[in-house]
Amino acid sequence: MGRAARALALFWALGGLAAAPAAHAKLRVNGSTTVNPVVSEAAAILRSEAGLEIEVDTVGGSSGGIAALADGRAEVGMSSRPLTERDAERFPGIDFHAVRVGVDAVALVVSRDVWESGVRCLGREQVRALYEGEIANWSALGGPDRRVAFFNKEPGRGTWEVFVQWLYGASERAPLVSLPEVGSNEEGRSKVASTRGAITVLSAAWADGERTFALGVCDAEGDEVRPTEAAIAAGRYPLARPLFIITDGAPQGAAKRLVDFILGARGQALVARHGYLPVGEGAQGVAAP
Domain 105-233 has what CATH class? Predict the structure, then answer.
């Protein structure tokens, strides 16, 4: 039995039944801003149709959600990165159980002026040079004569983990960089939209195509691979990632209602509507490494 389940059992043993019916206990969810739109909309539906009280927050992103689950501030975590051995080592008393609910693409997102100059695709070495400050002006890449404004995702966010894993092979190899940081996808998109020469790393679904634009990734032959559903499904886009809902032990009660809904037809329709690739019913839960 997971820690959250044990706590709930103790709650009822101490007289929780007299306080409120189980169906109306608040389910606390925390984590990834990428997973959040799907979970928040599912929570609103379950609140309206089944009377479930579900509170959704995004403090600290994926790693923050995993920590909130582990220390009892949430019953459900949202993550846009897989669980790692480091998570298991950091929280040895938690029986992490991750359920894949969708697939997303992380993208390099630029401001309108960069996009309109003709920059459409970047190779890994070009991205590394931008990230580390070796390329400081877009003109070096065929763009405008404008200083590069790189907004780094906060380390520990799922998006940052996927980005540096692709760039360096492991997050531990990522160098310390002196770049302004952004937290949520919304904050990153806002910064890029309002800053000339800007670039950041976001969930591709957050690039609006009006003020912020997702670039393709140039492969070894120089061919562009864009973050499309077809490229993700075919395994050609290198910055694809699974999206997870995580619980302490197998989901039970309200948490199970939430997971089951998102994995069902209506929930997977929400996944698709928010720009992610559905996984369909029957996705399997996995334990931490």
Answer: alpha beta
